[in-house]
Amino acid sequence: MLKIFALLVFGLTVPVQLAAEVTFFGQLNANYSRIEANGLRQSLLDDQGTRLGVYWAKYLDAKFEARYLIEAASGLAAEDELVSELRQAWFGVRGDFGEFRLGRHLSPARIALDPVDLFADQAADQNAVLESEVRHEKSVAYINRFDGIGYAVVLSANDDDNNRISQDVLVNYKTELLYVAAAYLRGHDRRRTLRLGGHYQFPAGFHLGMAFEQLDDKRGNSGHEAYLLNAGYQLERTQFKIQAGRNEADAGGYAETLLGLGLDHSLSPTVKLQAQYSVNKHRDHSAADRERVLSLGLSVKF
Prior knowledge:
Blueprint lengths: L1 H12 L8 E16 L2 E7 L4 E9 L5 E11 H4 L1 E15 L2 E9 L1 H4 L15 H4 L4 E12 L2 E9 L7 E10 L3 E9 L4 E11 L4 E12 L6 E12 L2 E12 L6 E13 L2 E11 L8 E12 L1
């Protein structure tokens, strides 16, 4: 507990620039939750979503820029480890042609719908029903943007069989008010994931978003179709939000459902208070399963 709060204080005070070309960045979260799952109750302090990273960039000449990024997830609360998982580690070269990267990447299919999610790193996170958490270990990526349309392609080798290459493609369109994305992942394991979604931010402060995911498992019967809808309203520095999701498994059983209600209050551009209540039923597609979570948290970005 003390380690989590120490990290939050560090995030509020650390200088962003360590050197002329090196930036230390991250997001530090502390959440206190009351959880009731299938008749069992517990209180929990966690740092879900805490991330620490280093970014470096340097122009090689007027046309080419070299960059690297290393980002890790923290697991102080659950695993008592400052660094519990390496999320990204890549080196890239950027120019008029776009950008090529080599290393470990987050899946474009995974991050395609991140801008849609109103409950990121909370119990009502969209990943509760969309369930696609992929990282590419030995991979090459190409990224570019043209007139508001961005696209990314990642090819990665299987650690056990370098002859099996996965393909991960993302196309999105982004303006100040609108975001639309489509992504397709063909994995090493014969699983195919299609993701579609977007959101619109109305000038009056209203937000509407939706997402769809189809997982086709060629190996067996563990695929699914999942849907997500959300809405929000921004009133000065406070956002009121609601998010609902549904996951229907190919194997049958009860459809998993998710409902989240919450509000975010910005104390500053980088510090935010969060409160949420969520109900997640039939997580394993059985009749009796149910989890309810009431949480209050603080999030600091730097």
